[in-house]
Design brief:
The protein is α+β, with helices and mostly antiparallel strands and 72 residues long. 21% of the residues lie in helices and 47% in strands. The protein has one domain: Defensin A-like (2-Layer Sandwich). The chain has a 4-stranded antiparallel β-sheet, covered by helices on one side. Strand 3 and strand 4 form a beta hairpin.
């Protein structure tokens, strides 16, 4: 259902991406609730939504990767 991949859009910034597909049986309000929970508790934000001809919603979420810098 989900696949996480990483790609840097520009130097110094890294994003983590997560793809989710919701079947057409899920109502709009259910999908909104599920995505809101992932945003609140996982730190994800909406990157892209595509609705196919078959009614499947393909959602791409992203969150910034924060690298800890070691101090001396």
């Amino acid at each position: 259902m989900t696949r996480i991949q990483r790609r840097p859009p520009r130097p110094g910034v890294e994003w983590e991406f997560d793809s989710i597909a919701f079947s057409r049986e899920f109502s709009r309000s259910v999908v909104t609730k599920l995505l809101t929970e992932r945003a609140e508790y996982g730190g994800w934000e909406l990157d892209r939504v595509r609705i196919g001809n078959d009614g499947v919603r393909r959602v791409v979420l992203r969150r910034k990767i924060i690298r800890a810098v070691r101090t001396a």
